[in-house]
User: Fold these one by one.
Assistant:
Number 1:
Amino acid sequence: MTPLQSTSHRRLNPLTREWVLVSPHRMERPWQGQTERTASPAGVQYDPTCYLCPGNQRANGDVNPAYPHTFVFDNDYAALRADAGSAKVDRGGLIVSEAEPGICRVICFSPRHDLTLARMSVQEIRRVVAVWSEQYRELGALPMIGSVQIFENRGAMMGASNPHPHCQVWASHSLPNELAKELTAQRDYHAARHSCLLCDYLKLELQAGERIVYENEHFVALVPFWAVWPFETMLLPRRHVRSIDALSEAEAMALADALRMLTTRYDNVFETAFPYSMGFHQAPTDSAAHPEWHLHAHFFPPLLRSATVRKFMVGFEMLGTPQRDITAEAAAQRLREVSATHYLDRAGSA
Ligand SMILES: [Zn+2]
Ligand SMILES: [Zn+2]
Ligand SMILES: [Zn+2]
């Protein structure tokens, strides 16, 4: 077999100049999303059939330890592999591919099968923040790794294969499309104005106030002016830091608090476990200093009008430009005004 049929690589789209990641080695993954959909949000604390619960066996035969807090392991069905090699293809700049070596890991947030970030304590989330910080530092230090993407897919609607609270880390050699675009924008802004794009943007948002969802001493959650998804948000540190591992203890606690408050508000909008894809955009780990980069997280939730009515990115949006009906300001107001107490914790709810 040629490397294109057997190892992780990326292929260039010469029309958009963006890349697609291809992982032909990836086996059929276990799917535990749909069958769990009928379980109540406050379901079982331990599920004997879950491959992430403590003490259970995973598909590759490994047995999870009886972990008390968090647990990290190499993804048994990794989209990226360290042994991808360095093969390149280039036929006239039109058929272009490169080997894409990398490492994929899974981080369990808690031994409890039934928890979510919104239902965990700030102290428990603080432990997850510590693991994110360690993983960014450890994987980013490898010469092979130029980017560490931490992300969480929550809910079967977002393709999460298991409801157990967890996230993934995909550490890759090259810079993924979204990071590459944001690097160029932040660099250009920094070069032109000797200032940080997101520091300046955050100042404007704090002055305006109308798109702020939640703020504490060190972090601000807001609906970005340019948001595409109905309830899309960004979470930013007030201080200019490049990555999670540069946060102070007080900032890491504030991040844990902001994650808890933001996800609680999400759940309260439609009184459901709000599905989303979220992830952190941190400075590339290519050994450059990256003074332009400002750490932030994006939340992309698909829900539009209820627990089941979602937005689709189709038609003009797929072929042209994304479109939305509810304004960013109205979405922020909605998120700001829902209760700060999780609906499952309110008196009278069982
Ligand atoms: Zn589980
Ligand atoms: Zn900044
Ligand atoms: Zn970003």
Number 2:
Amino acid sequence: MTHHRTVIVGTGFSGIGMAVRLLEDGERDFVLLERADELGGTWRDNTYPGCRCDVPSHLYSFSFAPNPNWSSTFSPQPEILEYLRGVARRFGVLDHVRFGCELELADWDEQRSRWRLETSQGGITADVLVCGQGPLSEPKLPEIGGLDSFEGTLFHSAAWNHEHDLRGERVAVIGTGASAIQFVPRIQPEAGRLYVYQRTPPWVMPHPNRPMKPFERRLYGRLPLAQLAMRAAIYWARESFVLQFRHRRMRRLATRMALRQLEQQVPDRELRERLTPRYEMGCKRILPTDEWYPALMQPNVELVTGGIREIRGRSVVSADGSEREVDTIILATGFHVTDLPIASAIRGREGRTLADVWDGSPRAYKGASVAGFPNFFFLVGPNTGLGHNSIVFMIESQINYVADALATMRRRGLETVEVREGAQAAYNQELEELTRGTVWVTGGCASYYIDRNGRNSSLWPYFTWPFRKRTRQFDEEAYALGPSAPEPAPAG
Ligand SMILES: Cc1cc2nc3c(=O)[nH]c(=O)nc-3n(C[C@H](O)[C@H](O)[C@H](O)COP(=O)(O)OP(=O)(O)OC[C@H]3O[C@@H](n4cnc5c(N)ncnc54)[C@H](O)[C@@H]3O)c2cc1C
């Protein structure tokens, strides 16, 4: 069994960013476990047509690795994947990655104060386990009777079947969230017939995306400070968006803009009616696109509302009994967010898993540490997701916190650090107060931000700069610090 000081799970923004930081801090004894054969996380898996980020690229990238060459202000998936590959190569991360290696079980060994890991490539032990497994990395399948025995082609948007030709086919898309609104306009011209099954209409805003001008690229290439200034401007502009989620009157203008776009793009009153959200804007993720409504109005597209009863043979049967025969079903049904499968695979003290302890409501301290789980850290853990700004900002904040925890352990010769129950409870109490009254819990929708107990366990509900401030330093006083490691016994 090999042993490492630190094991990191995942090679998305989180895992790569953490590895770069460890290397900068002079740490060499670490490994990244990646179940796939390639790095990139979200941006490796989501290859559907039209996939791109919905936070501007200048901000949706590492602060320590600006890229002057983005082709557009909101870059497409292949560019983001290439960017991540480039960062990993440039900073020497690849030497530390074990590809095709899935973490299957992690057990805290109380006797030896270390993690025992079972992976698809055998056992590993680690002093510290850092999980960057991804907030949206486990595709969710809808519970629709007969889906398993559908006789045509079926795939999820996060595992796009590029071998399959949609030209001339009858295609059903189930779901109208962030992925569907990006790929439906791309596949609409190809499909013979396209049925879009909508449960709840999304709030849609005009998309500010535009190609990056050659002079901008030259400027950012020659003058990195200019790009830094642009990044800061975008950050502060987006930061102000949080007010819309917290105060109803602050979202009036955005709501009017969205409704105006709907009215301008969808003249058909009946269709418009079905596309008008009946919950408040911001309750679910707001989706930027200029192409969604025009695609839905094409003659080969039908918007089907009212729910799905079952899949029968090659047909999708609606709740009203109407039946539509299709060749392909594309599931755009999102991800497991508050019910992460990895929570059942991590066992802390007394053999309790994260899933046992959480009981449907993920909780952590600063989105990173969980009481009962020593020497364990999350990146993008509970309550670090965002509705208004770049998650990379949160990831970098957490990386700094974890790196400082590791440095503290080393400096003080500590064997274990474990967040105190009281500190975690107080932190979560504060989160609950910050969430109260926000649109996420009062907006009248069901969203993936809210767990099965009705609690916001995924979003950081406030400005992000206070989070950065709070993660600047590892706060020892919130932790039970294990004894110093014993001196090694003299040889012989
Ligand atoms: C289509 C799409 C678009 C998005 N757009 C934006 C956006 O514009 N702005 C924004 O802020 N956020 C966006 N997000 C959210 C996005 O997930 C995060 O921004 C970010 O990419 C998360 O990075 P990560 O490294 O934490 O997780 P991921 O990128 O998901 O990486 C996690 C990695 O861990 C690996 N892994 C998981 N479990 C195991 C295991 N048990 N063993 C070994 N390896 C494992 C996975 O294979 C994966 O490579 C988007 C998400 C999706 C799906």
